Here is the input.
Amino acid sequence: MQDYLNAISLLPKEIEVLLSSIHEDLAGSINEIRFRVNKPLTLNSRKGVFYCTKSGRATTSYNDDLFFTDERKMQEIVFSLSRRSIHTYQDMLAKGFLPLKNGCKAGVAGCAVIKNGSVYSVSSFNSVNIRISREYCGCAQEVAEAVGEKCNSFLLVGQPLSGKTTLLRDLCRKYAGEQSFEPKKIVIVDERDEIASKSFGGGVDVGVHTDVLSLYPKEVGIDIALRTLSPDIIVLDEIGSEDEINVMLSGMNSGVGFIATAHGNSFEEVLLRPNIKKIVDAGVFKKAVVLKGKESPGEVAEVIEL
Here is the structure.
């Protein structure tokens, strides 16, 4: 329940109070809270999709008593999630997200403002999706056993909501925690602040022997880690750009291991992306771990030797 309360804590007070009225049993299973202009607030959970009424009651019935988000409310939501300073978060909004608390994240959609061929900022926000991050200590044990003790470089493949980021956190605790027999020095390059969530103080436990580079572009963070932090393992979420891949190739030649995630329904699908195929063919990863999916988050479907 606390994870859910963390996720809604930066919303406008009226909406925070509304959502805090959701029954605890349902709130504990919600993984997404979605706002769309002129549409009802929806709650996506392991139990199904629910709407929220004006009184804070969850229902599966589409009716006139539902809480709708108009354009004014949407602008208020983004302003509030931006800690009342949209200018401060302009670069992140241009990339489609806002970091929240304890690894939670808000995906934000709107009208792009283009400058010099790139998205400079976003206006006329029309959609916000709050992803709720939860801690499951020990959830990475199956993955660790599947890859084996000697493997320090592998790729986690899975659909959205299959548990990839949650597994990354627990793998860091396992390999770099105070109970580790031979702890590894780990560096997390946390581009979107959703693995360790350190950029606004506090954050989640990722192991006592772990260093965190928060909000650095992955290619920049990897380079800094290699040059200054002497890691045994670098941990990354959602790899795929050409710049990231090229820096990882340099790191491989330095003897550093990488634990990274990639979106995909299967390993074969991930390999259709040229940059992922390039790094796999180069031998950066020793194994690929494919997760079962959002219906069984964190569970291993298969392990592929590379």
Observations:
- The CA atoms of residues 42 and 51 lie 5 Å apart.
- The chain has two domains: 2-131, 141-305.
